[in-house]
Structure formats: C-alpha cells, structure tokens
Specification:
Number of helices: 11
Distance between the termini: 16 Å
CATH architecture: Alpha-Beta Barrel
Number of domains: 1
Radius of gyration: 17 Å
CATH superfamily: Divalent-metal-dependent TIM barrel enzymes
Largest sheet: 8 strands, parallel, barrel
C-alpha cells in the first residue's frame, strides 16, 4: 500500500479520445494536483505495439503515476458460461498485465461485468466457481508483474454476480491468493445500500477504492455527510491506498477541480 491515501481519477469515464483509454486528461489532472491516473486496461490492450510505445512515453513524461487500471477484461473474453476458454483468458491476461507492468501499474480493477456476467439459464454457483478458477490461474501472472488484482463488486444494475463488498470479500477469501484482493467502490455500495460496517470486516483485503456521487455517478461537487462517513471510516481503519474518482462529467476541468478539493478536505 501507499504511505498515505492518494487521490486519482479514472480517465476512461471522461475521455473524448477514440482510443477510450483516458490518457489525454493526465495533464489537467497533474495541473489540479491529483496524485495518479487510472486508465482502461482493455483499451490499452487493443493498441498496436507502436501505439503502446507512444502511450508509455506519454505517461512516463508526466509527474503522475498510472497507479491503477480499470476495465480489466473486454466483454468478448468470456469468464462464465459455456463459452469460456481458459487458454484464451491466460493469454489475454499475460499481454494485459505485461503492458500494465510497463506503465508502472500496481492495481488492476476486476469489475468487467460484460465478461463475467452469468449467461441466462447458466448456474450461478458454477459461474462463481469459474471466476474463482480464473482468479487462481492468473495469480502467478499478477505476481510476475508485481500487480494486485482487486475484485470490484458491481451493483445489480450492472452485474448479476459479485454485487457487494461482502460478496467480494467472500470471493477473495475463497480464492485465497496473495495477489487477489478487493476494491471498495462508494458508488456501488450506495446503490446496493451496503452498510459501511462491511469495511471493518474487509479492510485486510481492500487495496484500492473508487468514489462518485451516487446521484448520476458524477464528481463530488459539494460536501455531503455520506462522503464524510465513508472517508472517515477508511481513515479510522488506517486505509492508505488510492481513492479514484470514477465519475461522469459534462464539465471535466471544473468538476475535477471541485472534486479533488472536496476529497482533500476529508483526507
């Protein structure tokens, strides 16, 4: 973990670039005082070798680190159902984590609803076991590149499996591998009405966090008691990882400025 809680931003949520990666906002984030950027890994994998070299040079030229990547798996790399292919999954992960490692990434966010959602009529229990198998199989790859995979529970509006931090914790405990841990996302917790007390049970596994105002999944634009409660709980539990604003915006420069200002006050 980091020596102090750091504030980052998920570029892919606000990108206007055709690549979908979110790299082009890094200069504005640096100007505003953010500590790191979080980029879309599935989109990074789609780059040609030459395009990836240019991205790496661009990121390395910034004072910001690329601490984390979200969007781990694209929807076409199936993780559950009858059409899974473990060899394909392993090949994809090795390529993805190799590129992430070259960017200095330490945490990969595993939400990936399109890849892991349980197909209609397929056994939920079997899908759960398939996800466990995948996570155990990719643990050595994550270890090779010095990366930790953080399971991201997604609300039921986005996913039909692993919807709460409690479920994410159970999955991480069952997988039981050093490089498979957990993410707590304030937005998804709020959408599911999950109590903050779960953070106390899960803190030993939590390595990364996401944040957005649940009303529209936007940047925090004014102080709210709920923000205070979430961040205060993390501080009480001595959480020292990153907190990425993963939010939409119609006015990114101003929203990003306001958002970091609000989080800085709490942190």
């Amino acid at each position: 973990m980091l020596s102090a809680m750091k504030i980052g931003c998920c570029g892919s949520m606000v990108t206007s670039h055709l690549s979908g990666i979110g790299f082009e906002v890094i200069e504005k984030l640096e100007e505003l005082g953010y500590d790191y950027i979080e980029l879309s890994l599935a989109h990074i994998v789609r780059l040609s070798p030459d395009e990836f070299v240019k991205l790496k040079e661009y990121v390395n030229a910034s004072k910001l680190t690329c601490l984390a990547c979200n969007n781990f798996f694209p929807a076409e790399v199936r993780l559950t159902g009858e059409n899974t292919n473990l060899d394909q999954i392993i090949a994809y992960v090795d390529q993805a984590l190799s590129r992430a490692g070259q960017l200095g990434v330490k945490f990969i966010v595993f939400g990936s609803s399109g890849a892991k959602n349980v197909p209609p009529g397929f056994s939920h229990d079997k899908a759960w076991q398939q996800i466990k198998t995948v996570l155990r199989e990719i643990n050595p790859i994550a270890a090779k590149y010095g990366i930790t995979i953080c399971i991201e529970p997604l609300n039921k509006g986005e996913s039909n499996i692993v919807n709460t931090v409690a479920e994410g914790l159970r999955l991480a405990e069952e997988v039981d591998r050093d490089h498979i841990k957990l993410l707590a996302d304030y937005y998804h917790m709020a959408m599911e009405g999950e109590p903050l007390s779960i953070l106390e049970k899960a803190i030993d596994y939590i390595r990364h966090t996401h944040f957005a105002d649940p009303s529209g999944r936007v940047f925090p634009l004014k102080p709210k008691d709920q923000y205070t409660q979430f961040i205060t709980k993390l501080k009480e539990l001595n959480y020292t990882g990153g907190i990425s604003i993963e939010a939409y915006s119609d006015d990114f420069p101003n929203d990003a400025k306001t958002g970091i200002g609000i989080l800085r006050k709490y942190i």
